[in-house]
Design brief:
The structure holds 2 protein chains of 2 kinds. By secondary structure, chain A is an alpha/beta fold. Chain A contains 9 helices and 7 strands, in the order E-H-E-H-E-E-E-H-E-H-E-H-H-H-H-H. In chain A, helix 2 packs parallel to helix 3, helix 7 crosses helix 9 and helix 8 packs across helix 9. Chain A is globular, with a radius of gyration of 18 Å. Chain B folds into 2 domains: about 170 residues, no CATH class; about 140 residues, Heat Shock Protein 90, CATH 3.30.565.10. Chain B is about 65% helix and about 10% strand. The N terminus and C terminus of chain B are likely disordered. Classes of the chains: A alpha/beta, B alpha+beta. At the A-B interface, helix 1 and helix 6 of A face helix 9, helix 10, strand 2 and strand 4 of B.
Chain lengths: ~220, ~400
């Protein structure tokens, strides 16, 4: 833990279940990651992230004092260079989508194996999106909802045809490599497309939040 | 004044307000009667003094009942005493002849305020009782009781007012109590659901942990791990069904619910975050078609094959893609199977979708698995139900 090797990836584990939190922290430490902090809730995660500035934050969705989406917002506010990987137990639902909108770049179910977890943390640290078919289905559904919703505006986020294609392939269980082969593009290009779908939702969310804040006078300091 | 101010939660507040409107009208009538008859009184000056007291008391009552601090036995009792006193005071200002020929000096209408207040405060029995008491004092003043209801129905009216207003107050209180009970019940249910979510989440986490560790340890523990994993998935399905059920009306069913139920070790289901509402019959048919496709995967795709179900809501149509990563087949074999009449399941899938005016398309290649794309039009009402 006292290892100051710059190559070592620092991780913070946010989970309200002590057994699970410790098990994950131990697993990651065994694999050579530096688990620099753990937290059980939104407030603790924010406080500690401000101090330790972890490379990767492993985020549970259900926390002691709120949800993972709120904690993601808090952590990224005080440590913008951190990357948030959601590790959720309760399946892929609206709350995971909220965490993605708040800035999470990856998602993994808790039933994932140790190897999958290790790989996901390493990929997240490198700035790559960790995606499951389930999350692709959610993101795709969100864009479709925005497109046909009554509040659809021309400024709302939309997918390019290629991005839609890529998301559909991911949701149907194809790996990035398989998709790259199908579309005759590079592996990296496929990943860029996936990340773009995330980023646009995050930006739209931020614009939405800012508009809300201005409309409700929350932008002015009292 | 700070003891019983319950205006906001008091279910009889509207009745008290209405009663003060009546009080105002009865006061105006009493004022008119006073002006018209003051010259006939024996002591008009005292009459004006008493009318001043009556005015002050009327105002005090209106304020007390509207504000809420008068809505208690002591105040309503005081009102009754003042009303009786005023009726009896007729003897001080008027002659025997005048009394015999007229109603009491403060008017019967104004006196009715006492039974009304009593009825709102304590129900129909007390309301009618107060009405009878007021009329008894009135009778004592006149020195006779008139049972000729055809000529003088005042007593009947007093009883009716006490009964009707009292029952209205009682009904309002009972409805309010029922409502409070319902609100309490729903708070209890919400709290139970919140606790259940927490417990479920905890159990899911522990099961997931057991499954993970068990697989790592291997051997007989892997068997336990498999069981834990199975239960974890089952519980996760239950939890997602619970949240999906909220706020969906009966005619339309969320297609995500049955599809999520088909997820297991080999089947990955991806759905949108918002409900995909379709008619119950359509949902049942689509779910059955997906079941057929998955049966096909199990039978033909190979033992290691996994299936991926993707549900997309395009607004005017809904598409379900079911793809497997199994062995697939060359297109010739598909044609061969068709010519040999071995297309049972496939035909039933196509048939189901055509019956829904939709379509079912199959694509396959060797080593590429098989992919079905099922599409149906939605025929939704104009403003489709939206969430969030």
């Amino acid at each position: 833990m006292a290892d100051e090797d710059p190559a070592t990836i620092t991780v913070m584990v946010v989970d309200d279940h002590p057994i699970w939190r410790d098990a994950v922290a131990r697993d990651l430490a065994d694999e050579g990651f530096a688990v620099v902090a753990t937290a059980d809730g939104v407030a603790a995660a924010r406080r500690r992230a401000a101090v330790v500035r972890p490379d990767v934050v492993l985020m549970d969705m259900q926390l002691a004092d709120g949800d993972g989406a709120a904690a993601t917002v808090g952590v990224l506010e005080v440590s913008p260079t951190s990357r948030v990987l959601v590790l959720s137990a309760s399946g892929e639902r609206d709350d995971v989508l909220q965490a993605v909108k708040a800035g999470a770049t990856g998602y993994l179910v808790k039933s994932a194996s140790k190897a999958e977890l290790t790989e996901a943390v390493a990929e997240t640290a490198q700035g790559r999106a960790v995606f499951t078919p389930g999350l692709a289905g959610l993101v795709l559904g969100e864009y479709r909802r925005i497109a046909r919703g009554p509040g659809a505006t021309p400024s709302g986020p939309t997918l390019t045809e290629r991005e839609t294609e890529v998301l559909r392939y991911v949701a149907k269980g194809l790996t990035a490599k398989q998709i790259a082969a199908k579309l005759s593009v590079s592996h990296r290009t496929v990943e860029n497309h996936v990340q773009a779908t995330f980023r646009k939702l995050q930006v739209a969310n931020r614009v939405e939040l800012t508009r809300y804040a201005i409309e409700h006078g929350l932008d002015k300091n009292p | 004044m700070s003891t019983t101010i319950r205006t906001s939660t008091d279910p009889t507040t509207p009745l008290w307000r209405a009663a003060q409107v009546f009080r105002l009208l009865s006061y105006l009538y009493a004022a008119g009667f006073q002006i018209a008859s003051v010259d006939d009184l024996e002591r008009p000056a005292l009459g004006w003094v008493l009318f001043g007291v009556l005015s002050a008391w009327t105002l005090a009552c209106a304020v007390a009942y509207l504000h809420g601090f008068g809505r208690r036995p002591a105040w309503v009792g005081a009102e009754f005493v003042v009303v009786i006193g005023m009726i009896w005071a007729t003897r001080l200002v008027a002659s025997e002849d005048w009394i015999a020929a007229n109603q009491s000096w403060p008017t019967t209408l104004w006196a009715t305020n006492a039974p009304i207040s009593a009825a709102i405060l304590a129900g129909p029995i007390v309301g009618m009782g107060t009405g009878v008491a007021v009329m008894a004092v009135y009778a004592a003043l006149k020195g006779s009781v008139s049972f000729d209801f055809t000529r003088n129905a005042t007593i009947v009216i007093e009883l009716a007012v006490g009964l009707a207003v009292g029952m209205a107050a009682q009904t309002a209180r009972r409805a309010h109590a029922e409502l409070e009970r319902a609100v309490r019940m729903s708070a209890v249910v919400a709290e139970r659901e919140r606790l259940a979510r927490q417990v479920h989440d905890g159990v899911i986490q522990v099961l997931a942990l057991v499954a993970r560790r068990g697989h790592e340890i291997g051997g007989p523990t892997a068997e336990l791990a498999a069981l834990a994993g199975e239960q974890e998935r089952a519980l996760r399905r239950l939890v997602s069904v619970e949240t999906v059920r909220d706020g969906v009306d009966a005619e339309f069913v969320d297609l995500r619910t049955p599809l999520n139920g088909r997820a297991d070790d080999r089947v990955v289901v991806s759905v949108p975050g918002t409900p995909v509402l379709l008619g119950a019959a359509v949902v049942a048919e689509l779910d059955a078609a997906v079941g057929n496709v998955l049966d096909n995967v199990r039978a033909h795709a190979g033992p290691a094959a996994r299936a991926f179900v993707l549900l997309e809501d395009l607004g005017d149509s809904v598409t379900i893609s079911v793809r497997d990563d199994g062995v697939g087949m060359p297109p010739e074999r598909l044609a061969q199977a068709r010519s040999e009449g071995r297309m049972g399941i496939s035909q039933s899938i196509v048939g189901r979708l055509e019956a829904l005016s939709g379509s079912a398309r199959l694509t396959t290649a060797p080593g590429e698995g098989v992919e079905w794309e099922l599409t149906v039009p939605t025929h939704r009402p104009e403003a489709g139900p939206q969430r969030g």
